[in-house]
Known about the structure:
The complex is a heterodimer.
Chain A: E1 42-51, E2 54-64, E3 69-73, H1 80-88, E4 95-100, E5 103-104, H2 110-117, E6 120-123, H3 135-148, H4 160-173, H5 190-202, E7 208-212, H6 220-236, E8 240-244, H7 248-254, E9 257-261, E10 274-278, H8 280-284, H9 289-295, H10 300-306
Parallel strand pairs in A: 3-8, 3-9, 6-7, 7-8
Antiparallel strand pairs in A: 1-2, 1-4, 4-5, 9-10
Chain B: E1 4-5, H1 13-44, H2 49-59, H3 64-89, H4 95-133, H5 136-142, H6 147-185, H7 190-200, H8 203-229, H9 234-271
Amino acid sequence: MRPATVSTHDQPQPTPSSPHPDVAAVADPVADPVADPVADPVVLCGVGRRFGDQQVLRDLTMEVRSGETLVVIGESGCGKSVTLKLMMSLMRPTSGEVLWDGRSVSELDTSERDRRRLRLGYVFQNSALFDSFDVFENVAFGLRESVMRSGPGGREGLDEAGIRAVVLDRLEEVGLPAEVCSKNPSELSGGMRKRVALARALALEPSVMLYDEPTTGLDPVMTGVINRLIREVPRRRPVTSVVVTHDLSTVRAVADRLVMLEPVSRLAEGEPQAIFSGSIAEALSSSDPRVAAFLQGGSEVLEREAG
Amino acid sequence: MATIPISPPSWSPIHRLGGVVLSAVESIGDIALFSLGVLHQLVLGRPRRRVMLETMYTVGVGSIPVVVVTGVFIGMVLAVQGYSSFHHLGMETRIGSVINASLVKELGPVLAATMLAGRVGSSMAAELGTMRVTEQIDAILALGANPIRQLVVPRFLACFLLIPVLTIVADTVGIIGGWVFSTQALDVNSHFYWAHSRSFVTAFDVTTGLIKSVFFGGAIALVSCYHGFHCQAGAKGVGRAATVSFVTSFVAILALDFFLGLLLDTGYRMAYPAPTSLL
Lengths: 307, 279
């Protein structure tokens, strides 16, 4: 088993080579001159998260390397979605730190944090489309906010025609026709909702895409479509991706690297929560029975052993 | 979520009492911070025109039918209840002063606010609670917008600005209802009914009611949106948010009514020492 992931803070080292050599060269609308240019885009340093008296994450350390597609796996309830929300700064850790480009999120003031959050796109587990808006307004929402926002990071030059062009372009990218623009989210199938959510996240040209269980509740055909889209997004633009899933077809289809989380309740004292980090091939040959059990298709192996 | 307990709970009476007090203080602090956040966003910018108009339509126009119906009945109930007492004294014509003063100072604003809390406040809490549960509020944040500015500011402004209008509607239909019932069913002389009303109900009474209503509207919006934003997961959580929002709003309305009434009356007596006589 490969040792648990090591933060760049614990062991400074150059960022591993990216599948996209132009990642660092892309003009970033919220570029930070103070940020470390070779730092990993997102790093969790000893992060813990508690809800009331329940500990969900404990001392989790992992980094997301520039340009990679990192897949976070683990059985339901191990804190995968919470990890993603911490990366996005949609919730605060109760201990530890989240770093964006080498800067601690907790040290950013609110406006700076909100501005820098735009570098991350998030596809929610249940799509989280706005019920009161049609598809067009859902995809245009972030753009309109960006236009309204003054100062750095805002898109002051984008007019209504520009917004429409971006929206239609993103919908086309995810394989949806312009006719869906006037539909309400309730009129869409699960797969279409996922694609609209992806188009909405991509509209702001994020440099990091976070996917929370992107194929949950979809049939195998639509699962394949979503997996293909996740794979294609980094080919069209320099994007780092983090995919949280327990769907092994998604793991096989999109992962450059895997991190496996173990529920806190099953961890031994002092054991890191990220019990594995490495490629699929390494995972398949892992000597850790928990990794093997998960990848072989279920927890019944573990249950048999425990029984 | 896989979870482990941090520490075993303690259940002695002292612990329970402490827990209740801490929870209450925490809630008050949370609502205060939430309210400050809303005020901060109010200062920073206006909501989108389309969103504002839609919200105002829902809060204002949508509430008129229920306010009219309840207002009319309250006016007539006051006439029925007041008539028997005044009839024994042979002062039936003075019933108008009691009906109209009660309506413009107390019942009109409280009635409109209660209807707003029940119809709009609960709906706001349920709507925002559903948005919380389905991660739409997180999505707003993820897309670079401020959820308070997007969701709370329009609702707060709509309640704050439109509740005086609803109060005027409640006052007007209540007064008409009381007058029609008094003159048509109870045979009170219309001329004296209005003459006594005019001599007893002052512009200050009307203003007092409208001032109160503005506070009621603000409180309803803040309480409802707060409970929506802090909704627990699931359908049960949304239902609870709607219920707690109404109950808390209603208590807030009554508490504000008492303290504002006390404050305004004291101020009035200090400015105008001679009391108004019913006779």
